[in-house]
Amino acid sequence: MPAAQPARDTVTTPPAARSVASLVLNARFKLFDLLERHPDQGDFTQRLTDIVWQLQLACEQDADVALAVILHAQEGGYGIRHSVDTAIVVDLVCERLDMNPLDRQSVVSAALTMNMGMMALQETLAQQSTPLSSAQREEMHRHPMIGREMLRRLGVSDQLWLDCVLQHHEMPDGSGYPARLEGEELRFEARLIGLADRYCAMLTQSAWRSGSVVDSALFRTLRAHGSAADAKLGRLFGDTLGLFPPGAVVRLANGESGVVKHYANESAPLVTALFDDADMPLLEPVDRDTGKPQFAITDMLEPAALVGRVQFEQVWGAAAMGL
């Protein structure tokens, strides 16, 4: 008999103190264990909720580091990593909306489980360099319905959670799937998950998708949701992440390069410069106000440019330990 849904007023018990980066990476491990290894062992909803709380704690402690993990920790299986990445973005947008904490928990839960109906297919596609076959496309179009039914069998009865999983690929103009819902038929929260899903997918390196430079990924995502119905959502998404979100690798007008440390405003974030104009490490990292002309951002670089060259504690301190 499926486990009962936990009460909506359950008290949060935060995990033991860890760095923010370690909280996020550990959440990936826990989600893998839950979804791919032991989904039917114990109370599924409570175990998933524990992961939600862990991610929310990470975002509360240092949202900049939580976002940077998306760009700079792309190891391991794609499906689980992508779900956690999407959940981080969703939680930060929900926080900006001042969403009811229980609804916010439901929406983040949906982001973590949105692709339960196609876990194996996701891993296949992450390694596949050819277009989807007709059978793969059919499975993809059915996965929201399959995922919702899997969650129901595991004891999930939260309607907001279930609806968001079912609707996260629907589009306001009726071009989505599986039901081609339109306009007000869609939940706002499901459209939010769909937007975050697309954005995080564009940032991922894989055999069939080269990772997009961050600003390109953001604006391509917003254009894909460019209907009048989603204008508010698009603005909210951009306001939360910024044009240059934390973790983005950039070059400055003075030739230095470094990492966006903190989203201050859309076009002028705080950047920690790490390399000089000859691409040599600076003696000491230095924070640059990119609102000043000499430190303006002139170019976006691939995150892979920093692999093996940077200890992220230089940018964010102990919160980034483990990244």
Automatic annotation (TrEMBL):
Alphabetized Pfam families for the sequence: HD_5 (PF13487)
The scientific name of the source species is Silvimonas iriomotensis
InterPro entries xref list:
HD/PDEase_dom (IPR003607), HD_GYP_dom (IPR037522)
HD-GYP domain residues are: 57-253
Q: Where are the transmembrane segments?
A: none
* CDD domains, per database record: HDc
**What is the recorded name of this protein?**
HD-GYP domain-containing protein
UniProt-listed PROSITE patterns: HD_GYP (PS51832)
